[in-house]
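Open question from group meeting: does this chain pack into something compact, or does most of it stay loose? Before anyone orders reagents, we agreed to write out a predicted structure and look at it together. Recording both the input and the output here so the notebook holds the full record.
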Amino acid sequence: MTGASIFQWHARDLELSLEPGEVVGAMILTIDDPGDPRIAAYRDVRERDLVGRQGRFIAEGEVVVRQLARAPRHRALSLLIADHRLPAQGELIAAFPEDLPVYAAAQAVMDAIVGFPIHRGILALGARAPEIAPEDLLAGLGPDALVAVLCGIGNHDNMGGIFRNAAAFGAEAVLLDATCCDPLYRKAIRVSVGAALTVPTARLAPDADPVGLLQRQGFEVVALSPRGQTPLSAFRRRGRSAVLLGAEGPGLPEDLMARTRTVAIPMAGDFDSLNVAVTSGIVLHHLANGT
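Structure tokens returned:
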């Protein structure tokens, strides 16, 4: 189709003209009732976040939904968009398969569906990709791969921030230990600006030995700690490298640090604490740029 593309609102036979050059073939399905069973997965978003989504997740906001469209493994099941935003979203909708259900609702109806004022006005329901074994993920990475390994990260803001930094500085994968929170929790995805959907990820088994696994795969393993023996500025990576990051407070287990090269970020005075997401940004930037 050329010129002004047309959204077809089959439920109302209403046509909305879009900007020239935009191509949209999706069927737009109008939702008038918050109780409509077709959008049950979007109902009471915050409450569902607390109990889990059984293999599904919610992506929130235009930027994040765009990342879902390009995610290599996860896939979208449907979109829910405030109807006043539709004319500007032709390009976004066109990034998904034409048979993807796209639901449109008035803002008040959308707010009632999700259970709070959803100012971003765009949601997507996604399906998680099947789990990938950490060994398989690492084996497929390049000879100079940079990997972040997270131990005990339980805060979704920190989780999202680390994934955002991993994407920004070219980390090829993120490994999670068994105690880490879910990177596909809605808030973590949002804070990551969608990076949690695109950076390759694998979760370690509860009894896994991350240091041994990484070393067998040819990675030099670096542990971040205020008590690290090497200042970050003096560290240069060569070849495959993995950075271990622990939770604020307890940090990394001593037995892991004893088997790695420990690195510290020097700080002013006697202050020795940084937010773990901030730490990840500093370290990944340093290692990615070789400075």
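Observations to bring back to the group:
The longest strand covers residues 75-82.
Residues 4-127 form a domain with the 60s Ribosomal Protein L30; Chain: A; fold (CATH 3.30.1330.30).
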